[in-house]
Amino acid sequence: MNKVITIIAFFLLFVCSQSEAQLSKWQKGILVDEFIFDTASFPESHAATIAETPKGLIAAWFGGTKERNPDVEIWISRREGNHWTKPISVANGIVKDSLRYPTWNPVLYQVPNGNLLLFYKIGPSPGTWKGWMKTSKDNGVTWSTAKALPEGFIGPVKNKPVMLSNGVLLSPSSKEGKGWTVHFEASPDSGRTWQMIGPINDGKTTNAIQPSVLLYPKGKLQILARSKDRAVVQAWSTDNGKTWSDLTPTCLPNNNSGTDAVTLKDGRQLIVYNHVLPPADAKNGKGARTPLNIAYSKDGTTWYAALILEDSPISQYSYPSIIQSKDGMVHVVYTWRRKKIKYVKIDPAKLKGIKIENGQWPALKGYQTPSGAVVTNE
Questions:
Q1: Is 52 exposed, middle or buried (0-12, 13-18, 19+ CB in 10 A)?
Q2: What is the rounded distance in angstroms from the CA atom of residue 57 to the CA atom of residue 35?
Q3: pLDDT higher for 107 or 5?
Q4: Are 224 and 285 in contact (CB under 8 A)?
Q5: Which 3 state secondary structure label does DSSP give 180?
Q6: CA-closest candidate to residue 316, choices 257, 232, 243, 233
Q7: Of 108, 149, 245, 373, most Cβ neighbours within 10 A?
Q8: CA-to-CA dists, residue 190 to 109, 117, 135, 156, 171, angstroms
Q9: Nearest CA to 94 among 72, 110, 112?
């Protein structure tokens, strides 16, 4: 019996080592891959966000016993040197002694030469939550009291705002009510006052939420958004976000889960997402939240496969957030199995892409896919 157990253990170790070696073929350019924390006072974590302050990186997420539970709070950790500080709670949904709601979807944004902003939501559900904001003058060490956003405004719903060339802070947002609709909340004064743009869809023809904003020259913008239509959807603006085209599908699949994207200094657009095409009959277009991938594009239309961050069939790897720091490095945080928050640092100069055709993630010789099939041709 002991001999059989030893053989099985050796076989499993061999399989795992082979899988790691194969995954490494899709991980060129990754410099750091680590958890922000190993243990915490809360059992579940989700919806991470990341920003760069003058003193370094900071991440936030919501954590508690389970999403939607009243004890879910907003937690942050700052990167000091080569490690992350112990998570601390900076916001909760306590309304009064007898009433408490969960918090949701934090979004961090560092105003250039200004305060660090933290947007988040409080409420029993995404259809009823309200937007709140805190600010920090010391790079996230201490925070102001919570301030409610104006009625009807919720701030950036999942992904970071962008500062436009005209000085307007544009927050990509959305609502989930009688259909999913995308809108924008624009602030000419870094979050003190707000103006509404949209919604840009009716929530009937195309259901989309949680957009990211990508930047192009001469006031041209693109959004990439989550949808129920088995594809990442997009819209375009040529006037700095004042008006937008209709939402249309991209060549990238979507599993009805969050994505994020960023415009690099070299002009490339990076998206981090689950490259998963759900079955045609999947309810609301939902699919597995693994693997977790990164692709890039030079024009926002043709996309190239670059990285696979996770490909385990166990649990989920989801709700990513991505930024580029001043030194040119790319930083990603995401949900790891709902238990932890993962952090990855990437050198974008080392990314080598393979064109994505017909919505299919390209195959590398010798790479074993999550389903177990071994690819034998390039």
A1: buried
A2: 14
A3: 107
A4: no
A5: strand
A6: 257
A7: 108
A8: 10, 9, 11, 13, 11
A9: 72
pLDDT band per the 50, 70, 90 thresholds, residue 9: very low
Question: For 319, phi and psi rounded to 5 degrees?
Answer: 50, 60
Terminal-to-terminal C-alpha distance of the chain? 42
pLDDT digits (tens, 9 = 90+) for 38-71: 999 999 999 999 999 999 999 999 999 999 999 9
- Alpha carbons 116 and 108: distance in angstroms, whole number: 7
What is the Cα 18 distance to its own chain's centre? 29
Q: Where are the domains of the chain?
A: 27-355
Q: Answer positive or negative: Cα dihedral of 174, 104, 214, 336.
A: negative
Q: Look at residue 23 in the predicted model and tell me its pLDDT.
A: 83
Strand partners, 270: 262, 296
Whole-prediction pTM? 0.92
Structural fold of domain 27-355: Neuraminidase (2.120.10)
Single-letter residue type at 7: I
Task: Write out the DSSP string of 114-172.
Answer: S-EEEEEEESSSTTT-EEEEEEESSTTSS-PPPEEPPTT----SSS--EE-TTS-EEEE
